[in-house]
Amino acid sequence: MSPDIVNAITALTTFLRNGSQTRDPQAFSPGQLNVERDFRDLLAGLGRGTSDSPGRIVRPVLSDGLLTLGAPLPDKAVTIGGYSHSRKEKRINKVWLVNVSEATKYPGDQQNLRHQDIVVDHVVRLRVFDEHGRRILTGVPKIAKPPSRRTT
Amino acid sequence: MFRTLARLLADSGFDTNEFYRIHPLQLSRWLEEAWAQGGQADWPGFETSPTGVTPEVVARLQLPGEVGGGLLADLRSGITVPGEFSDPPAAGIDPGAALPWDHLIYAFLVESTGVAEILREVVRRYVVGETLEAARDTTYSWIRATEELFFRDPPLFSITGTTSALRPDPLVNRRNAYWRMFAMDLPHKPYGIPGQPWKTDVGAAANLRFGEVWIELLRQVWLAYVNDSNSVGANPTDASYIGYLCQTLSEMMGMRRRAGMLAREEFGHVVTMSWFHLLLETENEVVEDLQAGAGAAGNAADRLARIAQRVGITPPRRARELFELADLVSPVMMFIEAGRFNEPSDAELLFRSGSPEPTVRDKMNRIIDLWQSATGESIKETGVRVVNGPPSSSSQPVRLPSAHLPAAPDAGKSSTNGSAPVRL
């Protein structure tokens, strides 16, 4: 069978299935793709596959005004946010969200993110997003202990 | 977890033989650190879903002090290079990320191969006599670590310390956990243990419907799978019903997990089986010394069968399927327990090909094949249909399947294991 005939049959099959819809109704929704991605992440964590997620934020240490990372964020990182977890509501709530470019504007200091909006305030998760708003990194911050007050 | 640690070390260039030279005390300490990291409690996708391993449960059961501080720092494992003690951060200990461990179903399926009894006999023969040939250093290191970690009481206050004067036999303890969570027995009878003491005093708190609902889920997923591309005629797929089955399983497991029940047990049992599984999944010096090599392309079941021959035990014929099933079912069960497939739209992931790489669907298809082969339970058979007969009834039953509820276990009655078809 020639390629032209195959292409024509494929196009006809698609039209019969989808009608005039531009989106393939068989395709997963963004919510379903999130579950699928989380499943692949878990498989990767268990050592049984690879994940299309770049992985985790390396050794994040959070304090008010400063977030120190074990490695610089990737170039495609556009925003980074801190989130709290409400067990009662079973929800993740945004506490702050800052532009990576603003927080790393000091040359040669890509692992120290400084911004007045960065606060500890019950933050238990960090998430990094790309320009399309996709979550590309996640992390659990270690909260830096405030310096102990010297007693005299 | 030991397979995870071996993988982390392999990423640093160390092979399994070197892994077995790690001192058992270091391995024991590493388990404490892995637990304190939080496991799936800190894993993406489990943040808002109730499962047995929650941050509160982890914090309650771990040694006092955060990771890298307190007692955990004083008693650190120092595993960076096998055979040495290194200051933290050690491999996999402080990467800023938790390491998930497998679901209890993993331990159940691996132990169903008889691996615990077979390797127990290997270790026993090595430590009491010379009926097996002298081996190399690596093998004696493995024997020592295996005996210290799994055939004696763990260190006091250890996270894996689930044996005590009240429940002294780890073999019975594991069966107890399997019975409570899945209402399933291992397919082989335990040596030297009369009756079924693991069912004593469990009460009505075993998930007796688990097996039936799980099989029904597999059947419904297969029904939906074969009709996925069906665009003409009736389609018996019911994603809502599949989500309902997942929700039922999730609720059943959640009942057994309240307030962290079975969390330590699950961790300990998974750790034990991962140690045995690790030995069998690759060619290494221990396997070579036991003359059980199966080649680089060989599988764990082949190596287990050859080791079993050396000590006069016959493993189940379905060990091949059980080892592969263990790796596949565990993550699916974790997602089911976390309620990730409860919604009909999310349940579609189990059977639909809506992405170029439908991972969940592919795993489920393989699980169905292997489960059917391992247990003899017909999953793909949809029943006899009469040509030109009356239209078939609904593809979904009126009610969820329910198991026959047995009376309280009779301690005087011997185990049914071995006298009936294997039914996982």
Q: Care to describe what's here?
A:
The complex is a heterodimer of chains A (152) and B (424). Chain A has three helices and eight strands. With 152 residues, chain A is an alpha+beta fold. The longest helix of chain B has 19 residues, at 263-281. Chain B is globular. Chain B is mostly helical. Chain B is 47% helix and 0% strand. Chain B has two domains: 1-101, no CATH class; 102-424, no CATH class. Classes of the chains: A alpha+beta (152), B mainly alpha (424). At the A-B interface, helix 2 of A face helix 1 and helix 15 of B. Chain B: Residues 413-424 have a biased composition (Polar residues). Chain B: Residues 386-424 are annotated as: Disordered.
Précis, in short:
Chain B: Residues 413-424 have a biased composition (Polar residues). The complex is a heterodimer of chains A (152) and B (424). By secondary structure, chain A is of the alpha+beta class.
Q: What's the domain count of chain B? A: 2
The low-pLDDT segments of chain A are: none
Task: Give the SSE string of chain B.
Answer: HHHHHHHHHHHHHHHHH
Largest sheet geometry of chain B: none
| Broad shape of chain A | elongated
Rg for CA atoms of chain B: 22 Å
Counted by DSSP, the helix tally of chain B is 17
